[in-house]
Amino acid sequence: MLFKRLELKNFRMVKDFSYEFGNPEFLLIDGRNGQGKSTVNQAIQMALFNDYIGSFDDYINWDHDKASIDFEFEHNGTSYNVSMALTRGKGSERVLTDRSTGKTYKNKNAVDQLVSFGVTSQMKAAMIMKEQEVTVVDTSPAQRRDLLQSTYQEIFDPINASIEEAKNEVKEHKDNVDKLSDKKQEIESREYEEKSFERLPFSESEYSRIKDEVGSLEDAKDSLLKEESRIEEKKAQKKELEREIDYKRRQLLKSKDDLAKDEAEYEKKNSELSSIDVEKEISEYVKELSESVESLEGELAGIEDLEEKSLDNSFDEQELSKCTESRINTESRLDAIDHKIGLIDQGACPECGRPWEDHDKEKIQSEREAIAKELAELQEKERQLKKERDRIAEENKDIERHNRRVSENRQRIEHLKKQIEDKKESNRRLIDERRKSIESKIESIKESAKSLGNSISAFKQFIENAEKEVADKEASLNEYDDSEIEGRIQDINEKIRSTRESIKELNDKLQDFDDTVRRNREIEQWNKSIEEKRQRDEKEIEDTQSQIESVEKKREIAKEAITTLQKLSVFSLQEIMSTLQNYAQEFIDKVYDGRHSLYFEEKNDKLMLLYGPRKQDVKTASGYERKVFSLAYKYAFGKGFGIESIILDEPDSQADTEYSKNLFYLLAELIEEGVYSQIMLVTHKDDLKQMLKSEHDISTVTFNQGEAI
Predict the structure, then answer these.
(1) Averaged confidence pLDDT in the chain
(2) What is the mean pLDDT of residues 467-490?
(3) Rounded to 10 degrees, what is the CA torsion of 215, 220, 224, 230?
(4) Under a CB-based contact definition with an 8 Å cutoff, are residues 371 and 333 in contact?
(5) How far apart are CA 527 and CA 476, in angstroms?
(6) What is the pLDDT of residue 106?
(7) Which terminus of the chain is more solvent-facing, meaning fewer CB atoms within 10 Å of its CB: N or C?
(8) What is the pLDDT of residue 517?
(9) Over the stretch 631-686, which tens digit does the pLDDT of each residue have?
(10) Are 315 and 389 in contact, with CB atoms under 8 Å apart?
(11) Degrees (nearest 5) of the Cα angle 146, 151, 152?
(12) Average pLDDT for residues 482-500, to the nearest whole number?
């Protein structure tokens, strides 16, 4: 990863900072403590690794409510840009932009995308060294080993996962063996109980004899039931005959009643025929119809004498118009006189407007009175003319209404005359229809009387036949003897009961024999199933034992795999430690000119960091030495991960000027030798800046009160 550009706005105490990174470049950032020089390191950690302490509000300049970071870098040949906007009280928004495609990722997606590039805590551990950081040196040996494994997790995770998987497999195989053993023990402890056969109550030949006897009894019972059915049928025939006799008797009674009714109706029809007087009914009907004609003729006589009046009244509208026009003119003249009088009352001449002098006001007053009188006469005449006009108009309306009545009466007279003629014609038709109706009624009564006569004859014949049939059926009843029938039925019922009891007794014996045979068959089936179950269980025991042996073999194989994987893990760890030791020693040699040695040793899952000819624990070294050892470890990690850019914050904080000078010169040489492409060094030792610049190509930025110089 290479740094390209960083821009800060109101981030912590830095209000405005922008820097373009070179390649290669050794950038030294200096300044007194608390002036903002570590802010650049903190901004890059937050943008790349989402690494911050506290809340985002703590990173916003206290004079502002918003801050921003804009950081551009190159990774695997592609340029990316990370921007963060911090808002007080609302958190942050992070946007990652692929500058080659323009595609953007926001917030969590941006963090996930950075992780997919390999921007992880391992990269941070190899690329950034914070002030006073001696983590690897100060941690316990067990923690160092865990840190080493977590750093190279892509190597150890698959091995550890395989070891864990193999351990789970061993446990699973052991559980399966225990389950199979329990299953085998449970099968071996099963009991198999066979049942004994029951003894038959009698022999099979006796069974056949009883069955034949039951068949004979069943035949006898069927014969008795048939005879009983025949007797019951005869008994039913007698009851049916009695019902028929009763029905015929009811028919006789009804027929006699109907005969009496028909005879009475026949007499009524004959009486009705004798009472009809055709001529009398027609004359009464003619009289009734004549009354309606006389009523119409009376109405006609009452309206024929109404005569039409002539409309001869008229009014002269022109005279009224002239009168109205004269009245309007007179009113205008009166208004003009009144205006003159008003001017005279004000002392002005009505003609010229000059002051009033010798004009005759009385003459004007006299003229006004004459005009007023003339106006009154005209108004009265106009009123009289209007009154006369209204009277003539009202009289004309009455004449018009009268004439309309005369016209309507004439139409009504014509209508009544036509009605009278139509009524007379209609009456003639109605009289003819009435005559025909009466004659038709007489014929209908005659036909009805004739039909009743035929019906009376038929009823008499039916009654005679029915009485004979009833007498014949009553004679047939004597053939049935009730006491003989009942006695025979009782005798047959007794025999049937006795036969059924015998059949039941024999069937019970047969059922007992059949039940015993059925139970013995069930016992035979039971014993057969028990034997089959015993054979199945023996086979299952053999299969279970085979499964136990197979699972035991798999468990041994899994144990061997665990041993092999553990050896592979130890071998891989030793290879990594050897590589790291060589890289770290390479750095130590550059710092101390071969006067110090650093050793990596692994004992009982612990990573020992030792130095010097007597292999002392690095924890016993001086503060600066521990810092150098930690930097050497970071250098080794960086070479292992292919880190191109590093950020070092006060790596010489506990060193004197001479040691700091040697360390800074070494870092400059690492840039010149191409070990690193970019090194950003934060320090407060301003006196070393000029010495470095005199011998090496370095860039410098000095912070003072949050401003970069």
Answers:
(1) 79
(2) 70
(3) 80
(4) yes
(5) 74
(6) 93
(7) C
(8) 85
(9) 777 777 777 677 889 888 888 776 777 777 777 888 888 888 888 889 998 888 77
(10) yes
(11) 100
(12) 77
Tell me which amino acid residue 578 is.
Answer: S
Digit-coded pLDDT (tens) for 595-628: 778 777 777 677 777 877 788 887 787 777 777 7
Structure-token pair, residue 644: 């191109």
Environment class of residue 340 by beta-carbon count within 10 Å: exposed (0-12), middle (13-18) or buried (19+)?
middle
Print burial letters for 139-178: b (CB count within 10 Å at least 16), e (below 16): bebeebbebbbebbeebbeebeebbeebeebbeebeebbe
Per-residue pLDDT tens digits for 501-517: 888 888 888 888 888 88
Q: How far apart are CA 468 and CA 315, in angstroms?
A: 112
Q: Facing residues of 72 across strands?
A: 5, 81
The label of the residue with tokens 């960091």 reads 609
Q: CA-to-CA distance for 313 and 262, rounded, in angstroms?
A: 86
What are 655's two structure tokens?
Answer: 């060193």
The per-residue DSSP string of 638-707 comes to: HHHHT--EEEEESTTTTS-HHHHHHHHHHHHHHHHTTS-SEEEEE-S-THHHHHHHHHS--EEEEEETTE
Q: Rounded to whole angstroms, how far apart are CA atoms 432 and 422?
A: 16
- 187 sits in which H/E element: helix 153-188
Residues with Cβ within 8 Å of 671's Cβ and at least 6 positions away in sequence, in order, are: 24, 25, 26, 677, 678, 679
Q: In whole angstroms, how large is the CA radius of gyration of the chain?
A: 72
Distance of CA 367 to the CA centre of its chain: 103
Which residue, 640, 600, 607, is CA-closest to 151?
Answer: 640
Retrieve residue 28's tokens.
């030294």
Q: Is the pLDDT of residue 143 over 70?
A: no
Secondary structure string (H, E, C) spanning 133-156: CCHHHHCCHHHHHHHHHHHCHHHH
Give the chain's largest Cα–Cα span. 183
| Per-residue tokens: 596 | 């110090």
Backbone angles phi, psi at 601, to 5 degrees: -130, 140
Say whether pLDDT at 297 is over 80: no
Six token digits for residue 132: 């006073």
How far apart are alpha carbons 687 and 680 in whole angstroms?
17
CA distance 167 to 161: 10
Sign of CA dihedral 311, 315, 316, 321: negative
Tokens of 31: 């300044």
Instruction: List beta partners, residue 707.
Output: 704
Three-state SS letters, 432-469: HHHHHHHHHHHHHHHHHHHHHHHHHHHHHHHHHHHHHH
Classified as helix, coil or strand, 573 is helix
If DSSP codes are grouped into helix, strand and coil, which group holds residue 617? strand
How far is the C-alpha of 660 from the C-alpha of 160, rounded, in Å? 42
CA dihedral 502, 505, 506, 508 (to 10 degrees): 150
In angstroms, rounded to a whole number, what is the distance separating the alpha carbons of residues 345 and 436? 110
What's the rounded Cα separation, in Å, for the pair 329 and 334?
Answer: 9
- The partner residues of 98 in beta bridges, in order of sequence, read 80
Q: Which of 354-363, 389-398, 408-417 has the lowest mean pLDDT?
A: 354-363
Q: Indicate the angle between helix axes 361-476 and 317-345, nearest 10 degrees.
A: 130
14-66: pLDDT as tens digits: 999 999 999 899 898 888 877 888 889 899 989 998 888 888 999 999 889 99
Instruction: Measure the CA–CA gap between 505 and 503, rounded to whole angstroms.
Output: 6
CB proximity list for 115: less than 8 A, separation 6 or greater: none
Q: Give helix 657-672 / helix 687-695 axis angle, nearest 10°.
A: 40
d(CA 135, CA 183): 56
Tokens of 435: 């005559």
In angstroms, the CA 689 to CA 578 distance is 36
- Cα 210 off chain centre by: 77
Tokens of 287: 């009289």
CA distance 449 to 292: 38
